[in-house]
Design goal:
alpha+beta, Uridine Diphospho-n-acetylenolpyruvylglucosamine Reductase, domain 2, Uridine Diphospho-n-acetylenolpyruvylglucosamine Reductase, domain 3, Alpha-Beta Plaits, 18 strands
């Protein structure tokens, strides 16, 4: 037994410390295409006090520490390339308080979003951020997760009211309060949300929740061009219709879903929409949306209120990644994203499709058209050096295009390792300010080193 493992076992217990090969391998990867790297040991704390003790020990001995939720990240955020300790928060998975009157919930970081929503449903509430995977809420805050509902409810950072954070030296602090707003001090919630475990470990989260909408309606609308689809959404947003979800899937991706899932969707640029509200309000929204989209060139639009019918409408969007994976056995999916001003979105999607065809790789493109964020799903044989090189060329081309339009290299997947090399180009002097913050809060560079910023 190494000294590190022995010391951690004394701090915790033997059941909370693992060097099992399977456990180490599990914690050396995420859902991405990035290279696997295992930690030396994985620990499973049960309390804030134990997390504080682990970090205090690691800081004193300059041992790298990587926080871990469920490993659903897409840019190697949780892969410990520097080795050391991985802190898995699976045992810190309690819902501590539900406050319906305040529309708040207090949870530990290991609670998943579906677990939370199951508990909230009993109170007529739901948690709005849906990144697709059943990620832990701690991981979602760490990556500032978002998803299909962002256009209505905002990103993860918008839901954070307070965080209990353990800093690199073991100090425990809070970043906010229960108040709905504050003009006091620096905005620490915003600093730590999206910090990807590089500034501290979250041990308690106070999050905003919402009332379950009285009625939900879904729609699928087809257009001849991506430009028409984007313009239609822009018009709908400009007049204030409260769309809860709006997703754009390009023509080739619809064709892929039809081939794989034996669907019969029109093979045209397609919008998938969802509306939340009361019955009378939704009726007006549907009528106005139909009028606006028809004026923008919509070829057909179909609305559904029944749950089964709504789910069917969304199948093309939800099944897209799986259809590519199952149609390309032996290949790994590279999932990347960028975000641009909405006015630049159609051009960015066209550019991405052209670049994908130019490198000759199979892939799909879909976007959260309401906020200018889109994803490229690229199938890559990781054993083929040429394909790996081409996929990286493609990724770089769409990132540089986004930056040239004053966008960002990632709208929701985060930086991790995959987008770290673009940070200085995107942020300029602000990147150097980020490095100063990192050095101030983590002077020994033990917290998820090498992610987001690289310090000297």
């Amino acid at each position: 037994m190494s000294t590190l493992v022995k010391d951690l076992t004394e701090l915790l217990s033997s059941e909370q410390v693992s060097t099992n090969e399977t456990v180490l391998h599990q914690h050396g990867q995420d859902e991405s295409y990035h290279e696997v790297a295992e930690p030396e040991v994985v620990v499973f704390p049960k309390s804030t006090e134990e997390v504080s003790a682990i970090l205090r020990y690691a800081n004193e001995h300059c041992i790298p520490v990587t926080p871990y939720g469920r490993g659903s990240s897409l840019e190697a955020h949780v892969i410990p390339y520097s080795g050391g300790i991985t802190i898995d928060f699976a045992l810190m998975n309690r819902i501590l308080s539900i406050r319906p009157e305040d529309l708040l919930v207090v949870v530990e970081p290991g609670v998943s979003r579906l677990e939370l929503n199951e508990a909230l449903a009993k109170h007529g509430l739901f948690f709005s951020v849906d990144p697709g995977a059943d990620a832990t809420l701690g991981g979602m805050v760490a990556t500032n997760a978002s998803g299909t509902t962002t256009v209505r409810y905002g990103v993860m950072r918008d839901q954070v009211r307070d965080l209990e954070v353990v800093l690199a030296d073991g100090t425990v602090m809070n970043t906010g309060s229960l108040a709905a707003k504050s003009a006091s001090g620096y905005h620490l919630n915003g600093l730590f949300a999206g910090s990807e475990g590089t500034l501290g470990c979250f041990t308690k989260l106070t999050l905003r929740v919402y009332g379950i909408p009285e009625h939900v309606m879904a729609a699928r609308a087809t257009f001849n061009t991506i430009e028409e689809a984007v313009q239609a959404v822009t018009t709908v947003l400009q007049v204030g219709i409260p769309i809860a979800r709006v997703e754009l899937v390009d023509e080739e991706s619809i064709r892929q879903v039809n081939r794989h899932d034996e669907m019969d969707f029109e093979e045209k640029p397609t919008l998938f929409l969802e509306f939340h509200g009361n019955e009378a309000g939704l009726k007006q929204d549907v009528e106005f949306t139909t009028e606006l989209m028809t004026d923008a060139g919509c070829q057909s639009i179909q609305f559904e209120t029944e749950t089964a019918a709504r789910n069917h409408l969304w199948e093309a969007r939800h099944n897209l990644a799986y259809s590519y994976i199952h149609s390309n056995p032996g290949k790994k999916m590279m999932v990347t994203d960028v975000c641009v001003p909405i006015s630049e979105l159609s051009g960015a999607i066209h550019h991405a499709r052209e670049q994908l065809e130019a490198v000759g790789l199979v892939g799909g493109i879909l976007g959260h058209v309401g906020d200018g964020n889109f994803h490229a799903l690229v199938m890559v044989d990781m054993n083929d050096a040429k394909e790996v090189e081409l996929s990286n060329q493609f990724n770089e081309s769409i990132v540089h295009y986004a930056l040239s339009k004053n966008g960002t290299c990632t709208g929701e997947h985060g930086v991790g390792i995959g987008k770290q090399k673009y940070q200085e180009a995107e942020h300029g002097e602000a990147y150097h300010a980020m490095k100063l913050i990192k050095k101030a809060l983590d002077p020994n560079n033990i917290l998820n080193p090498g992610k987001i910023v690289k310090v000297d």
